[in-house]
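so my prof wants the structure for this chain in the tokens format not the other one, which i didnt know existed until like an hour ago. anyway here's the sequence
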Amino acid sequence: RARAPARPRRGAMGTSTGNRTAAAKGAAASAKPLFLYFADVAQSDLDKLAAAETKSEVKALLKDCMRIDEPEGFRTEILADMHYHNYSFCMARNFAPAKTSTFLSIMKTVLAAAVAARLDAEGAFDICKELLLRHGVERPPWSVGIFSFEDIKAIMDYVHNSFFRHYRLYMYAFMTHCDLGLGAGAPSVAPPLARPSPLSPADEVDADSLAHLFEFGTESELAETAPGADDRAALIKQKVDEGVKKLMAAFDKKIKEQDDRFETMLAQC
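here's what i got, hopefully its the right format
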């Protein structure tokens, strides 16, 4: 007989996870019989699986036995692969029909409960351990001795390296996701125009008091203040000469810097 290991104590941080795990355990117990041997896979189904010759035939039979009701797609393939690898593990361990049927139903129940209650890996592992212990100790009417202690150890190692190693991928594939997109943009309709404020008599201005702002002078006065053609030509020539002097100074500076670098290189050689 397998002896149930002591459960680790939970602190305050695990309260919410513990509540979800307890709810998932209650839902799993209400949806499934107390014991899972031959619950999904009957003896006749195991005979058909043993007689199957190809992997595709085994997966098709497991789809029917495990009642995969997902539409054709990647979810169906994921479930079929999970059940196929679980069945292959049972065959590699030379499990009896009751052990094979029980293990397949246990893993189906664990996945369904984890998705329904949105459990983390620790909560799902608690359900898996409880189901294994319920089928690992001969203590009627609370448990039955389907698995031996060595079987439970091998199953624990297997599910740890397979199902729980890829647990997040299973949850991402089967858990319902809600995506909410928010955006802010400018309104497409122009805002209403503001109404002009009425003017009081005190705000009125006499036009004659502003006339001096719009006096530009006569044509003769403008001609006197404007620079002559000769002055403009002299100013342009002065600017051009100054620009040429600056360019020549910069060019001489670059030539001197190159000469200094060459002399330095020659001195080093």
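also thought this was worth mentioning. The two ends are 92 Å apart (CA to CA).
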